[in-house]
Design goal:
Low-confidence stretches of chain A: 1-24
CATH architecture of chain B: 3-Layer(aba) Sandwich
CATH topology of chain B: Rossmann fold
Structural class of chain B: alpha/beta
Radius of gyration of chain B: 16 Å
Structural class of chain A: alpha/beta
Distance between the termini of chain B: 16 Å
Helix content of chain A: 25-40%
Largest sheet of chain B: 5 strands, parallel
Number of helices of chain A: 12
Shape of chain B: globular
Low-confidence stretches of chain B: 180-188
Helix content of chain B: 25-40%
Strand content of chain A: 5-15%
Mean pLDDT of chain A: 88
Strand order of the largest sheet of chain B: 3-2-4-5-6
Number of helices of chain B: 4
Oligomer: heterodimer
Number of strands of chain A: 9
CATH class of chain B: Alpha Beta
Largest sheet of chain A: 5 strands, parallel
Order of helices and strands of chain B: EHEHEEHEEEHE
Shape of chain A: globular
Strand order of the largest sheet of chain A: 7-6-5-8-9
Order of helices and strands of chain A: HEHEHEHEHEHEHEHEHHEHH
Number of domains of chain B: 1
Strand content of chain B: 25-35%
Radius of gyration of chain A: 21 Å
């Protein structure tokens, strides 16, 4: 690369970083200011996130896993729902990029005194927030925040609606193990109804050309049959079934979802025991998938319910890969969005 | 916009061979030497220098690739993030003599970023700099140890290095920017 780091030559002049840059050394072509869901990302956008995550994996492998790319940037993490891995993952990602991280736990903030979301966002912005990572139990809450916030909003999960960083790290994990997903059978097994992870994964996996199967008790698949009938985003490779045998047969990836007891209205499941017996991912069931099939879970797991402990810790499990890749993906997204956030 | 050729393929080849001799001479041998090319065109240049050293000294020098994107000092100024091309340093750098290789030395900011990146990987014994073209206009107290060709330029000119491995041909051109410095598309 030639010298591309020239600052402005005269005060007040429009900033021209360099005239010495060949096109392929140029800008990434990322146009999004917020990451609210994956449904507004193009295939090229998704590929760019994956390629940038590759570079972040290399950073993570360094003796000092820290680069100054976001130095001086304020990343504020506002979580209205309990979380360990997503919140910590975002925090680690932001710190690896040298950002200043501010953590706000809604339970111990003025939110508990009745402050509205909009007021909280405005207050955090006045306190210096430039990138806002947000989780909220109400679907769409990050969209409201994005309307009033002048920086970037990253959705860390909203209600049943979307969990874009999870879907991107899931896709990244599958691609780094399997290469292209075109035509590969990917099964999402379990509580699809309450799952923002599933809803975001449906977009990325169909976009990646996977043969996508949703499986679970029919009470937890309500509404998705229509998607299967009409296809998703032009893909007809989208199936919904309550038969575990049909779903798992020759699957290349099996992603078990947590039974979300906190969101479970009564009557959807007879009992957790019955669910575990009929839909739990056991080694016997996994044996009907392809021999090298990947086992995934977005966490946190209820071991013995949706997934057996030996399967979660087994040779085919890439669950810890998902966690590591999550940091790389979130670093990539923070980096890309930071370009549009000023 | 057509440019004026200031180095032909033959001249690039000879300059690369001379650089390889200078590097070995300065180090008084090849012991402890590592070549690290700065993405993108520094990388094939570093490989070529390593090949020339292998030919003359019968020693294989390890070659790495360094991406300085995350260390740029203008990340908060550009409108869009630059493409990350990746770092690959398949060796430890502690106590070694690193020769950074780049195609064009201009403001020196890329080299500043490269040195910041390198020290995150360890503590080299020395860091040296070899460039194919030095076009002047330094903005930092940085100079090259080994220069293929010194080219006086004005700031309104662009020096374009083409390398077979990336561009399909070898050659260095100098161009004058005619339009208003392409000011609307930073880094594009």
């Amino acid at each position: 690369m030639t010298d591309v780091l020239d600052g402005p030559t005269d005060a007040g002049e429009l900033v021209i970083p360099s005239v010495d840059v060949a096109p392929e050394d140029g800008a990434v072509g990322w146009r999004h200011r917020h990451l609210l869901d994956v449904d507004d990302l193009s295939i090229d956008d998704i590929d760019l996130v994956m390629r940038t995550a590759d570079a972040m994996r290399e950073v993570l492998a360094r003796p000092i896993a820290k680069v100054p790319a976001l130095r001086g940037r304020n990343v504020t993490i506002l979580f209205y729902e309990a979380s360990t891995r997503t919140r910590v993952s975002f925090e680690v990602a932001a710190k690896n990029l040298s950002a200043d991280v501010v953590n706000v736990a809604a339970a111990t903030s003025s939110v508990s005194k009745g402050e509205s979301l909009v007021d909280t966002v405005r207050t955090l912005e006045a306190l210096g927030a430039q990138m806002l990572v947000m989780r909220h139990s109400v679907s769409g809450a990050p969209y409201l925040a994005a309307e009033v916030f002048n920086g970037s909003v990253l959705n860390g999960g909203d209600g049943w609606h979307a969990h874009p960083t999870q879907a991107l790290l899931d896709l990244y994990t599958m691609r780094s193990r399997l290469g292209s997903l075109a035509g590969r059978k990917v099964v999402i097994l379990g509580d699809v109804l309450h799952s923002r992870v599933a809803r975001s994964n449906i977009w990325t996996l169909t976009a990646a050309g996977a043969d996508l199967w949703l499986c679970g008790p029919s009470t937890l698949l309500r509404g998705f049959e229509a998607w299967a009938r009409h296809g998703v985003a032009g893909s007809r490779r989208f199936h919904v079934t309550s038969s575990v045998d049909e779903a798992l047969r020759d699957a290349a990836v099996v992603m078990a979802l947590r039974i979300q007891r906190e969101r479970m209205a009564s009557g959807l499941l007879p009992s957790l025991r019955e669910y575990a017996a009929r839909y739990g991912l056991t080694s016997a069931r996994l044996a009907t998938a392809r021999p090298e099939a990947l086992v995934m879970h977005p966490g946190p797991m209820n071991e013995g319910v949706e997934i057996a402990a030996d399967v979660a810790a087994g040779a085919q499990s890439v669950i810890t890969d998902q966690v590591t890749n999550g940091v790389a993906i979130r670093m990539a997204l923070l980096y890309l969005l930071a370009g549009a956030a000023r | 916009m057509t440019g004026r050729r200031i180095m032909t393929a033959d001249e690039i080849r000879r300059a690369t061979i001379r650089l390889s001799h200078e590097i070995v001479e300065k180090q008084a041998g090849t012991s402890g030497l590592l070549l690290i090319g700065i993405q993108r065109r520094g990388v094939p240049l570093a490989r070529r220098i390593a090949e020339a050293i292998a030919e003359n000294e019968s020693v294989d020098i390890a070659v790495g690739a360094l991406d300085i994107t995350f260390y740029r000092d203008d990340l908060s100024l550009v409108a869009q993030q630059p493409v990350v091309k990746g770092t690959d340093l398949p060796f430890g750098i502690d106590g070694r003599t690193i020769v950074l290789v780049d195609d064009v030395l201009y403001t020196g900011r890329t080299i500043r970023a490269a040195m910041d990146a390198l020290v995150d990987f360890g503590r080299p014994q020395a860091i040296r700099l070899a460039v194919l073209v030095d076009r002047g206009h330094r903005e930092l107290p940085i100079r090259a140890d080994h220069v293929g060709k010194n080219v006086p330029t004005s700031r309104e000119e662009i020096v374009r290095v083409h390398l077979e491995e990336i561009d399909g041909e070898d050659g260095v051109d100098i161009e004058r920017v005619v339009e208003s410095r392409r000011a609307v598309e930073p880094v594009a």
